[in-house]
Task: inverse folding
């Protein structure tokens, strides 16, 4: 997952190097997977989920902080987890904030 995420972030931020960087990433991730299966670190069935999670997290990380180029407006309504209290009395909830 970490290797896939790293390659996705680099690939998204430097599109001019995609011609040679994508094959390098595929070979690197494949060799890493075979090595870890061979050394009994992971099972082969771990890799589809790990690669999918690395792809999703890499895409999210590479888009963080970039300005949106879409025409659709973003929502001003955001939801955040809420926690307050002490050891005896814990309260959990969801807090909604609307920016005007």
Result:
């Amino acid at each position: 997952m970490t290797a896939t995420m790293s390659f996705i972030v680099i690939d998204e931020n430097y599109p001019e190097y995609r011609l040679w960087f994508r094959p390098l990433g595929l070979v690197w991730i494949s060799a890493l997977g075979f090595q870890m299966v061979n050394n009994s670190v992971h099972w082969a069935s771990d890799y589809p989920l790990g690669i999918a999670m690395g792809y999703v997290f890499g895409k999210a990380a590479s888009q963080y902080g970039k300005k949106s180029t879409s025409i659709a407006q973003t929502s001003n309504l955001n939801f955040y987890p809420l926690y307050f209290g002490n050891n005896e009395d814990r309260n959990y909830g969801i807090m909604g904030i609307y920016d005007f």
User: Anything to note?
Assistant: The CA atoms of residues 8 and 59 lie 7 Å apart. The chain is about 50% helix and 20% strand.
